[in-house]
Amino acid sequence: MAVVVIYPIGTVLLGFLLDNTQKLNQREEALEQTAETLKTMLAEARQAASVFVNSKDTIAIVQPDGTVLDVNPTYSNVLGYSREELIGKSSAVLRIDEGGEATFLRRVAQAIERGGRWHGELVRRRKNGEAFVSEVTIEGIKDPDGVVRKWVSVGKDVTEQRRLEQALQQFGNYDALTGLSSRRLFAKELNAALQKRTETADILALCLLDIDQFKDLNEQWGQPLADHFLRVFAQRLRAEAGPDNLIGRIGGDEFAVALKDCAHTDAAMQRLEGLRQALARTAVLDNVQLQLTCSAGVTFYPDDMADADGLLRHADLALYAAKEQGKDRIAVFDIQQGQRVQARRHTAKLVEDALLQGEMELFFQPKVRISDGQILGAESLIRWHHPERGLLAPGAFMDDIVGTPAASKLDYWVLDAAFKAGLTLVAQGSPLPLSINIAVSTLIDSRFQREVGRLLKLHPSLPQPFLEVELLETETFNDLSAVAYVIQGLDDLGVQCSIDDFGTGYSSLTYLQRLPAQIVKIDQSFVRDMLDNERDRALVRGIVSLAHAFNRNVVAEGVETPAHAEALRDLGCDGLQGYGIARPMPLPDLIRWIRAWQPPPEWGCTGQPVR
Questions:
Q1: Which long-range contacts (CB under 8 A, 24 or more apart) does 313-316 make?
Q2: How far apart are CA 565 and CA 575, in angstroms?
Q3: What sign does the dihedral 523-524-527-532 (CA atoms) show?
Q4: Do 434 and 421 meet the contact criterion of CB atoms below 8 Å apart?
Q5: Residue 468 has what pLDDT?
Q6: Are 382 and 402 in contact (CB under 8 A)?
Q7: CA 428 to chain centre
Q8: What is the dihedral sign for C-alpha 320, 322, 328, 332?
Q9: pLDDT tens digits for range 358-409
Q10: Buried b (16+ CB within 10 A) or exposed e, 485-521
């Protein structure tokens, strides 16, 4: 057996070699890690340098005393200086700083000490002297000892952005057409004026003014001319109100004036009436002369203790009341009146919503000729399927919407629905003329006649004549000549017109003389009681005779019994309408009624009625 002998010196040498080998390996690994770290640091430095050089933002390295150490190319391009011109210079030459260089640097240093950075906007100056706005962030750069010895400033030119924001603010605060304050700015100025009211005992009068019939002016003469008259109106308003009072345009043709120092309400009303009269002077452009009248609503502070928005609402309610009272006048806000107006506006809004929701429906009540039983047509009557109150007749809501946009929308809806019903009657083999009730304000609207003509041309299959327009005699006809002109125009289209509820107004004879309506309808209140009231019977006889003298046909409403029909026949009445003939009914029921209709034997009609 061989024996291996290991001497002690060999063991020591082997340990030494192993230990140093491990240390060499560790040093090699450390060198490799250091190389990687240096490589990473170099890459980061190159990346930072690339950002510095290629950034679209202005970047500058400065000392805390404002001395420029370095800038990137964008900084030079934006400021107009070369890099060499900037290095070593104070950054103060590049700013328009009201507080001074020392104050600004101290403010930045305090911000960096607290949170590491300063952010804000500076007004800077380019080399050519041009000023611009720069949004800047300045951060501190710490040295290895943790001491901030340099700042890096990064900024961008926001001049155009701020100019756009200023333009938008100007647009929001001032009306582009007239230069007057917008509603928003006017309310803000009004609130400020109200806060100062505690210092004086005078009252403040807030008045809203609206040009009467401006919509018609716009439609008749076009927007350029309408805009001209708005500018004229605004110029007159500014001149009359004076520089110490608030003026604004808060809507299309609606203006606001706040008279800030009025001794009492009577003095304010005198000033406002004088202002309103001055606004009503004739205006002329391109040989077009217009008399601009306006309505006004006013409320007084501190009698009315609302804030600016509340005062504007109250003045608006008073303006609404002035329009209802006939326009071209001033109305003063009171609480009860405001409640009534608000209720009317609420109803008008509900009606507009009902039209959109399909809650409206036309019912039809037939009219027949007494001599032979012929069906003359049917009156279209609006019904509202109210989601809470059930089926509503016009009396439940029409009075509340008269004179509002809702009334006009409802009129045009009725017109369209009547034509659709007429087409259904034709398709069912029961063609029949239909009449509709239209407000005078809708009638004289230039759009109405055009729309009627368009619908008639679009539907040639309808019977001729098809449409009859009924006008309430009790409705105020402010311009008889305008109404007569439209009636004649409708007649040229083959559309008949009738005066409804004849005898209930004060100008019946005048209407017969001046309005070329073909039909007169006697109000049911006279017909209903004529069998027992000799005065009503005599009145009906007189209306029939008067209408025939003017070559008008006469239809009596309120016919409830055969006795009514016989009496009206004896008086020479031409047509009948009422519960004794048929109640108002939906279109499907009307079709069935037409097919089944037979005049009562008491009428003495011979043969089959003509349908």
A1: 314/338, 315/206, 315/207, 315/208, 315/256, 316/208
A2: 9
A3: negative
A4: yes
A5: 96
A6: no
A7: 42
A8: negative
A9: 999 999 999 999 988 999 999 999 999 999 999 999 988 988 888 778 999 9
A10: ebbeebeeeebbbbbbbbbebeebeebbeebebbbbb
Give the tokens for residue 195. Answer: 């806060």
C-alpha 207/C-alpha 295 separation (Å) is: 10
pLDDT at 99: 60
Q: What tokens appear for 59 in the block?
A: 């970047």
The span from the CA of 347 to the CA of 367, in Å, is 31
Contact 529, 509 (CB under 8 A): no
- Please state, in angstroms and as integers, the Cα–Cα distance from residue 412 to each residue in 282, 360, 452, 474, 482, following that order: 33, 13, 10, 21, 20
Q: What is the CA radius of gyration of the chain?
A: 43
Residue 496 reports pLDDT greater than 60: yes
pTM here is: 0.57
DSSP for 498-510 reads: EEEEETSSS-HHH
Which amino acid does the sequence have at 342? Answer: Q
Contacts 24+ apart (CB under 8 A), 287-290: 288/221, 288/225, 290/217, 290/229
The answer to whether residue 220 scores a pLDDT higher than 90 is no
pLDDT tens for 8-43 read 554 544 555 555 556 556 666 666 665 565 555 555
The structure tokens listed for 74 are: 């964008």
Residue 279 structure tokens: 């606004």
Q: Which sequence spans correspond to the domains of the chain?
A: 54-163, 174-333, 346-588
Domain 174-333 in CATH: superfamily? Reverse transcriptase/Diguanylate cyclase domain (3.30.70.270)
C-alpha span between 344 and 354 (Å, rounded): 15
- The gap from C-alpha 397 to its chain's centroid, in whole angstroms, comes to 24
Q: Which two tokens stand for residue 456?
A: 């008639």
Tokens matching residue 44: 């980061």
Q: CA-CA distances (angstroms) from residue 526 to 137, 252, 510? A: 87, 46, 20
Residue 286 has pLDDT above 50, yes or no: yes
Helix (H, G, I), strand (E, B) or coil at 391: strand
For the cut 90, the answer to whether the pLDDT of residue 459 exceeds it is: yes
pLDDT in tens, 65-122: 888 888 889 888 888 888 888 888 877 656 665 566 777 888 888 888 887 888 888 8
Q: Give pLDDT, residue 487.
A: 93
- Report the distance separating Cα 544 and Cα 571, nearest Å: 7
Show the tokens assigned to 494: 């083959």
Backbone angles phi, psi at 4, to 5 degrees: -100, 130
Mean pLDDT of the chain: 83
Q: Hey, which residues does 257 pair with through a beta bridge? A: 207, 247
- Per-residue confidence (pLDDT) for residue 463, from 0 to 100: 93
Torsion from C-alpha of 468, 472, 476, 477, nearest 10 degrees: 30
Domain 54-163 bears CATH identifier 3.30.450.20: yes
Amino acid at 402: V
Q: What is the CATH number of domain 346-588?
A: 3.20.20.450
pLDDT of residue 294: 86
